[in-house]
Amino acid sequence: MTDGVDRHNVVQRRYFEERALPRMVPRTSRYINRQVDELVRFASLTREDSVLEIGCGMGRYTLPLVERGYDVEGLDLSPVLLERLAESAGDGDLHLHAADIADPPDNLVGRFDAVIGFFTLHHLHDLELCFRGMARVLRPGGRFAFLEPNPLNPLYYVQITVTPGMSWQGDGGIVHMRPHSVFAALEAAGFHRCAVERFGFFPPFAAERRLGARIERVLESFPPWRFALPFQLFRAELR
Predict the structure, then answer these.
(1) Which residues contact 115 (CB under 8 A, 6 or more apart)?
(2) How many folded domains does the chain comprise?
(3) CATH number, domain at 136?
(4) Most exposed: 48, 119, 155, 206, by fewest CB within 10 Å?
(5) Secondary structure of residue 182 in the 3-state scheme
């Protein structure tokens, strides 16, 4: 790894360790469950698939996947966050790896049917380099599926600006999450059949309510604002 990559990773580790420990304790919610369910559907994951979650952190999404019976392992830059995830998992047989996906450990190479992640790609130092690392851990024909913020939704920039603990240094990579940029990096790394799908509308306090969730599904289907829906799913397959 270069000095620039090392500096980037140190910044990201510090950013998440300082924010995550007090604020990002895994908890079940309608909001989180929908995000998990949408990615599982979009990626066509089955419980027979071997799955590696990139940027798993403290397990906000890892634990719901395990509870649903998926064979998932976690990878993250931060041993501190992985220790907290292991504590939350208890006695479960959850395999965790502290590493940069751009340079995956040899014991992960060629082992997985799918690589997935939730709000991870915009924190990576180099998309193409990291996608090449993901390609290394996949079996032939393996799948890629990530949930990311939509950079065309202006509320993200307001959130970064006004939310204590968030910063442009930590989350500014959102601006690179445009489909043409992500697809170009995926194709350069050996993936094809790239696709994107957007969903969501309300913030958590409204989406958590049953009526809010129903209204949200209706609003998502209207063309005028579909381009700016807050969440986008990326999918691709390894050639």
Answers:
(1) 51, 52, 53, 54, 101, 134, 137, 138, 142, 143, 144, 145
(2) 1
(3) 3.40.50.150
(4) 48
(5) helix
Most confident of 101-105, 201-205, 206-210: 101-105
* Dihedral sign computed on CA atoms, order 71, 125, 105, 27: negative
Spatial separation of the C-alpha atoms in residues 71 and 42, rounded to whole Å: 17
In 125-159, which positions are buried (b, 16+ CB within 10 angstroms) versus exposed (e)? Answer: bebebbbbbbbbbbeeebbbbbbbbbbebeebeee
Stretch 151-169: mean pLDDT: 88
pTM recorded for the entire structure = 0.93
pLDDT at 20: 60
CB atoms within 10 A of CB 37: 12
**Hey, is 101 helix, strand or coil?**
coil
Question: Which range of residues forms the domain containing residue 133?
Answer: 3-238
**pLDDT beyond 90 at 186:** yes
What is the C-alpha separation between 122 and 14, in angstroms, rounded? Answer: 16
Is residue 51 classed as helix, strand or coil in its secondary structure? Answer: strand
Residues 125, 8 contacting (CB under 8 angstroms): yes
pLDDT in tens, 94-112: 999 999 999 999 999 999 9
Q: 102 forms bridges with which residues in the sheet?
A: none
Say which residues have a Cβ less than 8 Å from residue 87's Cβ, sequence separation at least 6: none
